[in-house]
Amino acid sequence: MPLLGDRESRLLIDGKLVAGSGGTFATVNPATEEVLGVAADATPDDMDQAIGAARRAFDETDWSTNVELRVRGIRQLQQAMRDHAEELRELTISEVGAPRMLTSAAQLEGPISDLSFCADTAESYQWRTDLGIASPMGMKTRRTIAREAIGVVGAITPWNFPHQINLAKLGPALAAGNTIVLKPAPDTPWAAAVLGELIVEHTDIPAGVVNIVTSSDHGVGALLSRDPRVDMVSFTGSTNTGRAVMADGAATLKKVFLELGGKSAFLVLDDADLGGACSMAAFTASMHAGQGCAITTRLVVPRAKYDEAVEAAAGTMAGLKPGDPTNPGTICGPVISALQRDRIQGYLDSAIAEGGRFACGGGSPADRDKGFFIEPTVIAGLDNDAKVAREEIFGPVLTVIAHDGDDDAVRIANDSPYGLSGTVFSGDDARAQGIADRLRVGTVNVNGGVWYSADMPFGGYKQSGIGREMGLAGFEEYLETKAIATLA
Ligand code: NAD
Questions:
Q1: Which residues of 117-127 are buried (b: 16+ CB within 10 A; e: fewer)?
Q2: Which residues of the chain have pLDDT under 70?
Q3: Helix (H, G, I), strand (E, B) or coil at 220
Q4: Residue 74's pLDDT is what?
Q5: Is 259 assigned a catalytic role?
Q6: For a substitution probing ligand 1, which of 27, 218, 245 has the most ligand atoms within 8 Å of its CB?
Q7: Coil vs helix vs strand at 280
Q8: Domain 264-453 in the same topology as domain 11-260+464-487
Q9: Which of 259, 375, 469, 477 is catalytic?
Q10: Residue 392 beta carbon below 6 angstroms from any ligand 1 atom
């Protein structure tokens, strides 16, 4: 059956695809402003039922202990996504505004393929460890460490890489034996809702194990953070919302796992290929219109080469005009909404007000009368105290900042409330590695290395988050530890 045949998605609650009690809300193509169709609009009552279903499935079925069933369910979901890959690709391009070329990587095929890591990990994981016999306090005791599922996981996700983020929560949470309620962003409800259709039609995942609740109301997601039946909230989104989730979770002291914003630095040392490094920084900042949390949006270059660096970055960015995401050559598509476009424009205006200048770009392209587009923009003439250097813009905007040597470059990179990612370019790998070791961030690219993969943990220091997604660390976030002592 084709996905979303009637252009209306449903909620998945307790194994059934159902309408939302709040009616429906529209999902919009950000490149054309066309309404693609509608999604079920959940109310607090719907969320209450979804949480109840997840709780029952955890407490009353063998899901949490049946590794074979979990592995089978994850592999079936992966196969169903592969079988529907072309439909999912078109949906991702039209709903997310994701450039087609990114759907063969992190926007679709990458996360589908990464589900193998979750299934393989569940299969090979050592769920119990025998620590042997000891005599603490004179009592001869056999000690065992058991790792087991936390319980009900509430997953709250943003719109920028919806498949990647939905699956990076769903995959490990299910592999570890939890049940889940997924609440996606209102801007991309279909990317999550299709998972519901595929789970119901193509997998043996039991009723209640996965629940998917789309809603136009952010407050419906907040119920997950507050509800005592939810054991853990796994959240990806902005730092401000992350604070609200953490505060809401405090009342029931649930585990709160946070993947938040970033303002990452791309450091170019004085012995690096300046032109090559600055072009790469410009390319990275333009990809998917800069809507990536780990994108390096501060280009930190040697002061003596500042003008040359600005010119190199602007030369590359000026060639990356925002374009139609259906076109295989497009790198910079639209931003998600008019709200985001206007927010980005506000940051661009602030750069000029603070004395900066645009080396290229600076606003919406004149040749597009539909869609939410912003030209890739290089901002020059500001230092690390400027608003555009401190706050996350989430648009195709690169701010070029001068440094006075390696120590100063490290100081600037770390002078940020965020600590998600970073890049170091140098002609000398050991020197670059030494700088990488001094950055207070969760992932570092050294001379072009790629840190994104299923077995690599991803996450932030400081206000970029708490915990790690993906890799073994990302799987173990969804586990409790139990120490069992048996008199020997
Ligand atoms: P957002 O914080 O506005 O929303 C994220 C999700 O939280 C949405 O599903 C939203 O409905 C929900 N939400 C909003 N208010 C809530 C509340 N009070 N309680 C519970 N849920 C609530 O973020 P966004 O605009 O959708 O996404 C962009 C942000 O996400 C950026 O800051 C970006 O850096 C961040 N992000 C981080 C990562 C990462 O892994 N670190 C990855 C992607 C995006």
A1: bbbbbbeebee
A2: none
A3: helix
A4: 99
A5: yes
A6: 218
A7: helix
A8: no
A9: 259
A10: yes
Does the CB atom of residue 222 touch ligand 1 within 6 A? Answer: yes
Tens-place pLDDT, residues 29-44? 999 999 999 999 999 9
Tell me if 191 CB under 6 Å of ligand 1.
no
Look at ligand 1, atom 39, and give the residue with the nearest C-alpha: 259
Q: 299, 398 in Cβ contact below 8 A? A: yes
The amino acid at residue 233 is V
The confidence score (pLDDT) of residue 250 equals 98
Residue 340 near ligand 1, beta carbon < 6 Å: no
Q: What is the pLDDT of residues 267-289, one digit of tens each?
A: 999 999 999 999 999 999 999 99
Phi then psi for residue 153, to 5 deg, are -105, 130
Please report the pLDDT score of residue 328 as a whole number: 98
What is the position in ligand 1's atom list of the atom closest to the CA of 185? 9
What CATH architecture does domain 264-453 belong to? Answer: 3-Layer(aba) Sandwich (3.40)
Nearest partner of 168 among 242, 111, 238, 231, judged by Cα: 111
Cβ 420 vs Cβ 264: under 8 Å: yes
b/e per residue 262-301 (b: at least 16 CB within 10 A): bbbbbbbbbebebbebbbbbbbbbbbbbbbbbbbbbbbbb
Q: pLDDT value at position 1?
A: 73
Determine the pLDDT at residue 249.
98
Domain boundaries, the chain: 11-260+464-487, 264-453
Q: Give the integer Cα–Cα distance in Å for 380 and 377.
A: 10
CA distances from 254 to 210, 225, 235, 481 (A): 19, 8, 13, 15
Q: Which atom of ligand 1 is nearest to the CA of 187?
A: 26
Q: Atom 23, ligand 1: which residue's CA is nearest?
A: 237
Q: With 0.85 as the threshold, say if the pTM is over it.
A: yes
Residue nearest to atom 9 of ligand 1 (CA): 185
Cβ of 151 closer than 6 Å to ligand 1, yes or no, is no
Top CATH class, 11-260+464-487: alpha beta
